[in-house]
Amino acid sequence: MTAREKSLLDAFDYQCECNLSYVREQDRKVVEIGQGHLRDLYTTLLADNERLETCLRAAKETMDEHHTRAEALAARVKALEEALSRVEWAGRAQGMGFGPHGSGGDGPRFPACPVCRGVKPGSGGEREFSASAIGHKPDCTLRAALSTPREETTP
After folding, report:
1. Given this model, what pLDDT does residue 63 score?
2. Neighbouring-strand partners of residue 93
3. C-alpha pair distances (Å), 77 with each of 47, 70, 90, 92
4. Is residue 136 part of a domain?
5. CA–CA–CA angle 17, 18, 20 (5° rounding)
6. What are the Cα distances from residue 60, in Å, to 53, 66, 73?
7. 3-class secondary structure per residue, 132-144
């Protein structure tokens, strides 16, 4: 090998080493940049996760509060339905008296609806009142409140 060829070969080796060093330096920079991006993404992910956990906690608290209110409301509705059923026939209707033409105000009393004044069926008032006076009237609001179907929900 001539001195010139050796010199060219040494120059080529040197250039290869320089290129290799440059590539390694660029790789290191890319890795550093990538690591920086990863750190930024991880920090963002942690912050997003914390915000999500805060939102989930708030949603659970709201759900628990609504659940508690729903239970209290269901208890109130049940108590009102029971109260309405107790007063359904709390009124009184008086049958014909013993005076002339049913007068006299001393006739028998029968349970009746306090709202529509309909006589309770099966109470014996069927002998004293016409068939249209027995039971709730079609437009009775108490009958409507008692017969409204309710969804049974388990809170």
Report:
1. 95
2. 110
3. 45, 10, 20, 26
4. yes
5. 60
6. 10, 10, 20
7. HHECCCCCCHHHH
- Cα–Cα distance measured from residue 131 to residue 6, given in angstroms and rounded to the nearest whole number: 130
Q: Is residue 83 part of a domain?
A: no
Lookup: tokens for 54 = 């805060």
Task: Report the alpha-carbon distance of residue 66 to residue 1 in Å, rounded.
Answer: 92
Please give the angle made by the CA atoms of 93, 95 and 101, to the nearest 5 degrees: 140
* 106 assigned to some structural domain: yes
For 52-80, write each residue's pLDDT tens digit. 999 999 999 999 999 999 999 999 999 98
Residues 47 and 114 in one domain: no
Of 101, 103, 120, 102, the C-alpha closest to 111 is 120
> For residue 136, which of 152, 113, 154, 153 has the smallest C-alpha distance?
113
pTM above threshold 0.70: no
8 with 64, same domain? Answer: yes
Residues 109, 95 contacting (CB under 8 angstroms): yes
